[in-house]
Amino acid sequence: MFSQDFKEFVQLLTKHNAMANTYTQIYLQLVFSVKGRQNLIQISWKDELHKYICGIVNGKQQKVFAIGGMSDHIHILVSLKPTIALSDLVREIKSNSSKWINEKGFINGKFQWQEGFGAFSYSQSQLDTVITYINNQELHHQTKSFKEEYIETLKTFNLEYEDKFLFNWIE
Known about the structure:
Blueprint: H1 4-15, E1 27-33, H2 43-59, E2 63-70, E3 73-79, H3 86-104, E4 118-122, H4 127-135, H5 137-140, H6 146-156
Helix pairs in contact: 2-3
């Protein structure tokens, strides 16, 4: 697809943040689930996990505005600079955080995030609403399941989907 020289050039630009005259404002809510939608994220270590994920994101020179979720899924509101591909950032978050959870021995067996993720864009004027939404996940999920929430979000953003490609739901 791209030559190795071009890839190295892009990496050099990214490494030195040498993207003169590049101005972006990209806010994304990332949503992904524990593999098999298992309720594995425990209250006793959830805050530690959130701090660890913030460290991953910050280490990639991106910014977390809010992070929250339930025992089976997570929401992260980030601003994304053009120095990293969204899929690369999500892969870093998922792989490093699952490795960290496993090294800490927080669960019996192996922790994994489910394949795939949702990414939903917002304008700056919507940030307070999204931050409140993410911070109030426990309250929100007293009346709505993750499946209902996720499908509603897909519909709100007019995203076509096929049930067979959504997360493995546990009813």
